[in-house]
Amino acid sequence: MNQPVLDVRGVSKRFPGVLALDDVSLTVAPGEVHALVGENGAGKSTLIKILTGVYRPDAGDVHYRGEPVAFGRPLDAQAAGISTIYQEVNLVPLMSVARNLFLGREPRGRFGLIDLARMNREAAEVLAGYGIDVDVRLPLRSLGLGAQQMVALARAVAIDARVVIMDEPTSSLEPREVDTLFRVVRELSGRGIAIVYVSHRLDELYQLCDRVTVLRDGRRVHTGELAGLDRLGLISLMLGRDAAEVRRDGLTGFSAHDAGDVEPILRVRDLSRAHQLHGISFDVRPGEVTGLGGLLGSGRSETAKAVVGALGADGEVTMAGQRLTRRSPAAAIRAGMAMLPEDRKAEGIVPGLSVRENIVLAAMPTLSRFGVVSRAKQDRIVETFMKRLRIKAASPEQKVSELSGGNQQKVLLARWLCLHPRLLLLDEPTRGIDVGAKAEVQALIDELAADGLAVVLISSDLEELVEGADRIVVLRAGAVVGELAGDDVTEDNIMTALAQEPAHD
Amino acid sequence: MTQTLVQKSPHPVPVEREHRRERLAALAQRHGALAVLTLAVLVSSVVFPSFPTAENANGIAIQSSFLAIIALGMTFVIITGGIDLSVGSVFALGGVLAAYASQWGPAPALLLPLAVCGAIGLLQGVLIAYTGMAPFIVTLAGLLGARGLLLAITEEGANTYLVPKDSAFLELGQGTLLGVGYPVYLAVLLFGLGGLLLQRTRYGQAVFAVGGSPDAAALMGLPVARIRVLTYLLSGMLAGFAGVLNASRLSSGVTILGVGLELDAIAAVVIGGTLLIGGAGTVSGTLCGVLLLGVIQNVINQIGSLNSSYQSVVSGGFLIVVVVVQTYLSRRRHLR
Ligand SMILES: Nc1ncnc2c1ncn2[C@@H]1O[C@H](COP(=O)(O)OP(=O)(O)OP(=O)(O)O)[C@@H](O)[C@H]1O
Ligand SMILES: [Mg+2]
């Protein structure tokens, strides 16, 4: 191997209550795509933040291009040529797309003033290369999550970097955008830029990466060529269980149910919203997982939001025989619906509150008696879910903002599960969750369905959708283009349904 | 295995529509104050014949110029997600220092207040940016501190410093060009520069980023602390400069001035469409907000029979309407 561009030696980092990194080393050569994997809370993001000057290591040091470095701030790391896409989209939602892209390095013209025309033009050009065709003067938040992530990618790559670090860059991308991302990664690596790539999607790693470093509980347990390691081997390294055990447990935790002719608990009729949803109708039966399939912009998330009243729409929603007239999220919860939203950062987690408080937040009314909340009941619920979902936290009282990204997601999932809803809508429930816990979440969904809960599942992961759902409603451009059930639920059939033209317009 | 979908989704029409609405909302946010101001001026002109006169307009402009300069600094502060409660006291302190220093000539009368008020702003900025104390608390202390300093140098207000009658310093606040007072020109000039600073410089972009999402700004490599310090420095200096102008106009440093002025400035900024939570705003909106407050005061004076305290009632009413509309607009956009 040639001279590494990045060489991390024996780095340790302790947070109150947890040793997040314990003597971890990592070397990355120019042009190499290096996978960094591990369970939620294994320390991946912490290692990245040490590389980029967000945290200082307690021990060990970082060598960059042969020199020891200690970046005090992200600014310094960036200036030195280490560019990062962080796990959560870290851009400024209210500022325009172009301004986000160029923030801190805007093109300047006369008198040192920013040349707006040039900035907007260049931004449009750059983004077009990423398949993003938008009015770059619009605020960033008017873009979908995936497109925002692409802007972050474009921004990171545009900075003249020698090392690009990507912390779960694909977690909110559509397949088409993932392709673009892959293309960019290969191009970068071809130019001799080193890439550190974090992802829970193993397929991606095998498609992209040369070598892999596995972290477990803050320690490095393996580094080596990826090609020589099969999926099972990789998973067992991550989980610390042996391959045979992993194989026995299976990789997804789903099984089929047969709800037969049970009365639907949710009837959606003619759900419409100008230019987004066109007369969407479907039924959801208790004891069954109903999947919503489709591409970006097909209206999956919008449909779910409209059902729970978080998005205004015309049409009828009947829950357990009761027609919901004044639709609002509160009314939906009262009617027994619970929804896990897609954009968890904006719509879910309360960063300042503890893990316990975040979990029981929505269940408060049902846990309280005369306004007094039973602490014992809370503790029981919290303990159950923390164990079940393997939420890694120092204690239930730890602030949720201090948890790793994947563990924050699990906390949110726990919040909606402990409501004991009759209908659960899950928008991308396993995004950002590691393989072990993913199977656990899937098994839990399965178990809940077996207990008679009705589940609506939205997932961009076709494999998850096909294995998880007993019935799939396929959406395209805001209209239902097909419904698959039983043995018809296959990836091929979904693709065929997607290829059809919608009936309207 | 996860299959890759290569098929393109048809270009969604809804996006267009969404964007138009987004733009409309932004437009309302940006130009709402201008629309209300125009309306207020039109109605007042029709109802009060004495309103649409050059003399009256001039009066409103002069009256508003001091608040405008203060509110300009406040706009920057609020966009970074902060607040500066000290500006009223700093304004008064600037005036008294100017009057005091005018005995040595116009240059000290200008520079001493700017230096002292700038130092107060700088200190506040450093405390806020580097110790993580809440801007509300730090600048509240600044409000009390500056007021205390003021009382100390005027011996509890017993001393009123007068600007020497023949001082060239008086020209600054009392001189006119084409019948319009210098302070008006200065305010307009400062707003022009402020607009450029906010929209067309890296500092200005960083101000938006720091207010819109401080964590993201830091991760994107912006010097967040330095931006904050600079912003409070700017606010302190602008408030001091407004005090200087006012002292020149009144020929003296008046101790009791500026009480509650910070609230007027905040009101003007918010009415002008700047989000109180930070991250969005314009200086032109602030100018409209200041003028609107000026027109309201003027109209209430025109009515004559009304107690001038009604001004606060009407301004307060406006404020509530603006904030409600703001909340509504941003909620709608959020729920998309
Ligand atoms: N600011 C913090 N304060 C306290 N503990 C923290 C903080 N940041 C991270 N931790 C803890 O350090 C450990 C490692 O977290 P890290 O974010 O590095 O995990 P990760 O490997 O990125 O996981 P994921 O796949 O979920 O993103 C976790 O136990 C987490 O709770
Ligand atoms: Mg992470």
From TrEMBL, chain A:
<keyword id="KW-1003">Cell membrane</keyword>
<dbReference type="Pfam" id="PF00005">
    <property type="entry name" value="ABC_tran"/>
</dbReference>
<protein>
    <submittedName>
        <fullName>Sugar ABC transporter ATP-binding protein</fullName>
    </submittedName>
</protein>
<feature type="domain" description="ABC transporter">
    <location>
        <begin position="260"/>
        <end position="502"/>
    </location>
</feature>
<dbReference type="InterPro" id="IPR027417">
    <property type="entry name" value="P-loop_NTPase"/>
</dbReference>
<dbReference type="GO" id="GO:0016887">
    <property type="term" value="F:ATP hydrolysis activity"/>
</dbReference>
<keyword id="KW-1278">Translocase</keyword>
<keyword id="KW-0547">Nucleotide-binding</keyword>
<dbReference type="InterPro" id="IPR003439">
    <property type="entry name" value="ABC_transporter-like_ATP-bd"/>
</dbReference>
<keyword id="KW-0472">Membrane</keyword>
<dbReference type="InterPro" id="IPR017871">
    <property type="entry name" value="ABC_transporter-like_CS"/>
</dbReference>
<dbReference type="GO" id="GO:0005524">
    <property type="term" value="F:ATP binding"/>
</dbReference>
<feature type="domain" description="ABC transporter">
    <location>
        <begin position="6"/>
        <end position="242"/>
    </location>
</feature>
<keyword id="KW-0813">Transport</keyword>
<dbReference type="GO" id="GO:0005886">
    <property type="term" value="C:plasma membrane"/>
</dbReference>
<dbReference type="InterPro" id="IPR003593">
    <property type="entry name" value="AAA+_ATPase"/>
</dbReference>
<dbReference type="InterPro" id="IPR050107">
    <property type="entry name" value="ABC_carbohydrate_import_ATPase"/>
</dbReference>
<keyword id="KW-0067">ATP-binding</keyword>
<keyword id="KW-0677">Repeat</keyword>
TrEMBL record, chain B:
<feature type="transmembrane region" description="Helical">
    <location>
        <begin position="229"/>
        <end position="248"/>
    </location>
</feature>
<dbReference type="GO" id="GO:0005886">
    <property type="term" value="C:plasma membrane"/>
</dbReference>
<keyword id="KW-1133">Transmembrane helix</keyword>
<feature type="transmembrane region" description="Helical">
    <location>
        <begin position="254"/>
        <end position="277"/>
    </location>
</feature>
<feature type="transmembrane region" description="Helical">
    <location>
        <begin position="110"/>
        <end position="129"/>
    </location>
</feature>
<dbReference type="GO" id="GO:0022857">
    <property type="term" value="F:transmembrane transporter activity"/>
</dbReference>
<feature type="transmembrane region" description="Helical">
    <location>
        <begin position="85"/>
        <end position="104"/>
    </location>
</feature>
<dbReference type="Pfam" id="PF02653">
    <property type="entry name" value="BPD_transp_2"/>
</dbReference>
<feature type="transmembrane region" description="Helical">
    <location>
        <begin position="174"/>
        <end position="198"/>
    </location>
</feature>
<feature type="transmembrane region" description="Helical">
    <location>
        <begin position="136"/>
        <end position="154"/>
    </location>
</feature>
<feature type="transmembrane region" description="Helical">
    <location>
        <begin position="27"/>
        <end position="48"/>
    </location>
</feature>
<protein>
    <submittedName>
        <fullName>Sugar ABC transporter permease</fullName>
    </submittedName>
</protein>
<keyword id="KW-0812">Transmembrane</keyword>
<feature type="transmembrane region" description="Helical">
    <location>
        <begin position="310"/>
        <end position="329"/>
    </location>
</feature>
<keyword id="KW-0472">Membrane</keyword>
<dbReference type="InterPro" id="IPR001851">
    <property type="entry name" value="ABC_transp_permease"/>
</dbReference>
<feature type="transmembrane region" description="Helical">
    <location>
        <begin position="60"/>
        <end position="78"/>
    </location>
</feature>
<keyword id="KW-1003">Cell membrane</keyword>
